[in-house]
Design the sequence.
């Protein structure tokens, strides 16, 4: 091998080593990016799961509120019915009985 060929060979080997080092750095960067993506994916999944659970709890609470509103409406209707019954027993506004007891003589 001549000196020029030897220099060219050394230069090619040096370039090859540099390219291999660059490839290793790129592979390491890609691995780090994949790890970050995986971590973010896990974080997103955790948030999604938490949101889904909160939505389910919210739906349960809304259902409970609707049931309680129904119970309140039924109790109000019962109360109005009792008031109407009392008014009917007392004769309405016109014939109200005195709430005072009469003294016996």
Sequence:
């Amino acid at each position: 091998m001549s000196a020029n060929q030897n220099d060219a060979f050394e230069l090619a080997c040096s370039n090859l080593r540099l390219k291999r080092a660059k490839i290793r750095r790129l592979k390491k960067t890609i691995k780090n990016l994949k790890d970050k993506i995986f971590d973010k994916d896990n974080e997103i999944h955790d948030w999604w799961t938490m949101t889904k659970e909160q939505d389910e709890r919210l739906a349960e609470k809304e259902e409970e509120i609707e049931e309680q509103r129904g119970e309140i409406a039924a109790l109000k209707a019962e109360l109005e019915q009792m008031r109407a019954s009392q008014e009917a027993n007392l004769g309405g506004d016109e014939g109200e009985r005195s709430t005072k007891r009469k003294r016996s003589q």
In short: The mean pLDDT is 90. The chain has one domain: 1-89. The CA atoms of residues 62 and 68 lie 10 Å apart.
